[in-house]
Amino acid sequence: MSEARTRKGRNRRDGKSVTVAAPYVRRRIPTYNLLDEEALQIIEDNADTVLQETGVEFMEDMEVLDIFREAGADVKGTRVRFERGMLRKIIQASAPGQFTLHARNPAKSVIIGGGNTVFAPIYGAPFVHDLENGRRYATIEDFRNLVKLIYQLPYLHMSGGTVCEPTDIPVPKRHLDMVYSHIRFSDKAFMGSVTEGSRAEDSVQMAKILFGDSFVEEKCCLVNIINVNSPLTYDSTMLAALKVYARHGQGTIITPFILSGAMGPVSTAGTLTQMLAEALPGIALTQLIRPGAPVILGNFTSSMSMRSGAPTFGMPEPALALLAAGQLARRLGVPWRGGGSLTASKLPDAQALQESSDTLFPAMMGGVNLMMQSAGWLEGGLSVGLEKLILDADHLGMMARMSEGMDLSENGQAMDAIREVGPGKHCLGCAHTQANFKTAFYDPVTNDSNSFEQWQQDGSLDAAQRANRIWKRMLEEYQAPDLDPGIDEVLCAFMARRRQELPDSLV
Questions:
Q1: Which CATH superfamily is domain 118-219+343-400+444-507 in?
Q2: What Cα–Cα distance (Å) separates residue 286 from each residue in 74, 89, 96?
Q3: Are the C-beta atoms of 32 and 323 separated by less than 8 Å?
Q4: pLDDT value at position 20?
Q5: What keywords does the record list, in alphabetical order (predicted)?
Q6: Which residue from 436, 405, 463, 396 is spatially nearest to 120, judged by alpha carbons?
Q7: Which residues contact 449 (CB under 8 A, 6 or more apart)?
Q8: Most buried among 16, 162, 293, 476, using CB within 10 Å?
Q9: Residues spanned by CATH 3.20.20.480 within the chain?
Q10: What is the pTM of this model?
């Protein structure tokens, strides 16, 4: 029986019930391998050629340049070139194939890597959208409400990071409120800030207040997105955050962000080559700073409209790239981040469903370990939709159930049911059905399978309207997890001191 089914219980959501999910998914279905050995070798060889001939820019960070120079790289100015196979050797010598990301509630810690999948919510949206208020700039109240919703959604395994940008707080200070909200209003694993080195350090210090100094230095309690400034550039902001987290033994997700046709080639194979060439130096850097530091190969590859220049999602070419990226990560020996419920739609409509599904499904079949952006994404990531969050989270439950595979135990074979019922009758009242009906099928929270007449009687609501009712009820019923008052006091004092030290600026 899979991890996703080991804890049974029922959580009420808008009058319905759902299975209580385990803290992460253990896949029992095969991983789909798109490319054969020859094709994978071509991409890896081409990436080595890019690293050797073109190299990668590391902007305004002499320390990083010195680290690479000491490791044997060719450093000229801010351009670094690497001999073939050099980075792979560094990575495979120490980077872990999987690791535990600890939550303050140990029952909600997650294992990233191997045959496991962890779902995390949207990250980085400056706007919030709901049916009544439409699109608006996000506030800290929106941020807190999102954390409260994510805390209650069983198939979102992490609280996330910047689930929205609280624009009512100055940029240099908002990371304090975001990290605190994850700690105070949830007990799931969370992420730190990466928008400046000192903000990353503040995130680590807040984690130490929560978990204890020695625990954080020995265990992974934060995992954080380090985006490559594609093509082939690491900027000083991301490098500063990477160094902080790697030195403290915290996790990093090294993610090339490539829209094919803009920041990378229009061909899928060319995009994958660039993605691998960009990711390898960042992954290796974490190991040069602290061997054994948790690190994830991130893949955010999508396409763009060659007519308008707008980003597109859920297209077939990025789906192929997702499948192949998982193979490349497994060959490298590190966990893989990919996928998400991505869409360019501005509303939780049919376009959003199609594009999100066509990103989500290949990532699942490709063996994704950490799925960022798995719920709430609208408008190319510019907006987090409250209704979309609920709809996506329900869809994740379906993906988790699918990942369990087929039950071929004696109970799963159901021979006793077939014998009992025989020809020409029905299974509704047989002993096997009575024993299994509560857990036999995934019970969607947001779908309506009633008759037309019953649907009319219930208000003729569409899926988004049903999701609207659900998130409102969840906020009304929310109860915060317990937090040691002494820890809370120290956290608040730390934040108050840092707020006095930090400027009220816009950057």
A1: Trimethylamine methyltransferase-like (3.20.20.480)
A2: 18, 13, 11
A3: yes
A4: 58
A5: Methyltransferase, Transferase
A6: 396
A7: none
A8: 293
A9: 31-101+221-338, 118-219+343-400+444-507
A10: 0.95
